[in-house]
């Protein structure tokens, strides 16, 4: 077997992550929340109470925060991530992401490969597969 060769990879710095997070937060506030969470409607089942994004390593996750309405655990909350922007560490001058979606099986599947941030956000806006299930 051949040894795996090390390839130079460009990682995101703290400033670049903060800039990307600011763009994504604006996208959540201006596009996702008005469309998928205009108001909070309590139900007897699990219901969404917030939409937000967060970094986890090299992935930026879009997350739906849900609250339980079930009698045995009413008020309990949990996070349900629905889409990841996974930073592609390649020898590229611009920042690119693989866009992945969360399947009902618990697995993450890549929907789009190596797309710039603005294109990734457009894909989330138009593709039901990448949107929260509210």
Q: Can you walk me through this structure?
A:
This protein has 134 residues and is of the alpha+beta class. It has two helices and five strands; from the N terminus they run H-E-E-E-E-E-H. The longest helix has 23 residues, at 14-36. The radius of gyration is 17 Å and the shape is elongated. The relative contact order is 0.17.
Please render the helix and strand layout as text:
Layout: H1 14-36, E1 47-56, E2 59-67, E3 77-87, E4 96-102, E5 108-116, H2 117-126
Antiparallel strand pairs: 1-2, 2-3, 3-4, 4-5
Helix-residue proportion? 10-25%
Rg, rounded, reads 17 Å
* Strand line-up of the largest beta sheet: 1-2-3-4-5
Please report the number of helical segments.
Answer: 2
Largest pleated sheet? 5 strands, antiparallel
Contiguous low-pLDDT stretches (5 residues minimum) are 4-8
What fraction of the residues are assigned to beta strands by DSSP? 25-35%
Given helix and strand content, the structural type is alpha+beta
Overall mean pLDDT stands at 89
Question: Total strand count, please?
Answer: 5
User: What shape does the CA trace take?
Assistant: elongated
Could you tell me how far the N terminus lies from the C terminus, measured between alpha carbons in angstroms?
A: 48 Å
Order of helices and strands: HEEEEEH
Distinctive features:
single chain; about 130 residues; alpha+beta; 2 helices; elongated
Task: Summarize the structure in short.
This protein has two helices and five strands. The protein has helices at residues 14-36, 117-126; strands spanning 47-56, 59-67, 77-87, 96-102, 108-116.
């Amino acid at each position: 077997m051949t040894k795996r060769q090390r390839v130079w990879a460009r990682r995101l710095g703290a400033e670049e992550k903060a800039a990307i997070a600011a763009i994504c937060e604006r996208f959540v506030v201006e596009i996702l929340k008005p469309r998928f969470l205009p108001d909070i409607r309590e139900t007897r089942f699990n219901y969404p109470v917030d939409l937000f994004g967060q970094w986890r390593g090299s992935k930026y996750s879009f997350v739906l925060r849900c609250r339980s309405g079930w009698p045995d655990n009413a008020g309990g909350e949990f996070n349900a991530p629905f889409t990841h922007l996974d930073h592609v560490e390649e020898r590229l001058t611009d920042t690119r992401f693989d866009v992945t979606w969360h399947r009902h099986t618990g697995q993450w599947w890549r929907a789009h490969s190596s797309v710039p941030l603005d294109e990734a956000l457009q894909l989330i806006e138009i593709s039901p597969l990448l949107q929260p299930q509210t």
